[in-house]
């Protein structure tokens, strides 16, 4: 029988993208279960722990507060979402917020692109540019018009 693979805190940090200090903090606030220890006191992490850390990292990138993550961390990866309709609903709402943030950021990118493009037509040293060319710029998108 093959022994289960275990990882050091350094390896867990590398695989999850979460620092060792932060992993210790997550254990301290009980976001993560306390890690098992070797006889020498060093922490031992299993693949499930790495997956939990990766989930925390993913949710953190979305801006979800740590306290809101707790319920999601109690559900196993192979669980049927139908058994947790309240969590599914919360995740759907969180997703809607993220999509809204993406839309807002896309408006900012569109606006910046428009400003950069407009600046290109105003350069006095551009001998190839004429007044007519600058008037033929494409109209601003709907998203860009939100800024005016």
Topology readout:
Layout: H1 9-16, H2 20-28, E1 36-37, E2 43-44, H3 47-61, H4 66-73, H5 85-121, H6 131-135, H7 142-145
Helix pairs in contact: 1-3
What features would you describe in this structure?
The structure is a single chain. This protein is mainly alpha-helical and 148 residues long. It has two domains: 1-79, Multidrug-efflux Transporter Regulator, Chain: A, Domain 2, CATH 1.10.1660; 80-148, no CATH class. The chain has seven helices and two strands; from the N terminus they run ααββααααα. The chain has helices spanning 9-16, 20-28, 47-61, 66-73, 85-121, 131-135, 142-145, and strands at 36-37, 43-44. It has a two-stranded antiparallel sheet. A hairpin with a 5-residue loop joins strand 1 (36-37) and strand 2 (43-44). The model is unreliable at 129-135 and 142-148 (pLDDT under 50).
Mean pLDDT: 83
Q: What is the helix/strand order?
A: HHEEHHHHH
- What CATH architecture label of the largest domain applies? Orthogonal Bundle
Total beta strand runs: 2
How is the CATH topology of the largest domain named? Multidrug-efflux Transporter Regulator, Chain: A, Domain 2
Structural class: mainly alpha
Helix content: 55-70%
Tally of domains? 2
Distance linking N and C termini: 68 Å
What is the overall number of helices? 7
Short description:
InterPro entries: DNA-bd_dom_put_sf, MerR-type_HTH_dom, MerR_fam. This protein is mostly helical and 148 residues long.
Which structural traits does this protein have?
148 residues, mainly alpha, Multidrug-efflux Transporter Regulator, Chain: A, Domain 2, two-stranded antiparallel ribbon, 7 helices, 2 strands, elongated
């Amino acid at each position: 029988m093959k022994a289960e693979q275990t990882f050091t805190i350094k390896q867990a940090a590398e695989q999850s993208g979460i620092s060792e200090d932060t992993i210790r903090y997550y254990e301290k606030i009980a976001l993560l279960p306390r890690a098992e220890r070797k006889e020498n006191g060093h922490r031992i992490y299993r693949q499930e722990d790495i997956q939990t850390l990766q989930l925390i990292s993913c949710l953190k990138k979305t801006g979800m507060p740590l306290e809101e993550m707790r319920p999601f961390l109690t559900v196993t990866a192979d669980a049927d979402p139908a058994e947790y309709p309240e969590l599914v609903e919360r995740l759907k709402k969180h997703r809607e917020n993220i999509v809204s943030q993406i839309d807002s950021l896309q408006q900012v990118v569109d606006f910046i692109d428009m400003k950069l493009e407009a600046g290109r037509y105003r350069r006095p040293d551009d001998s190839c540019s004429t007044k007519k060319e600058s008037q033929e710029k494409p109209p601003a998108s709907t998203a860009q018009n939100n800024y005016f």
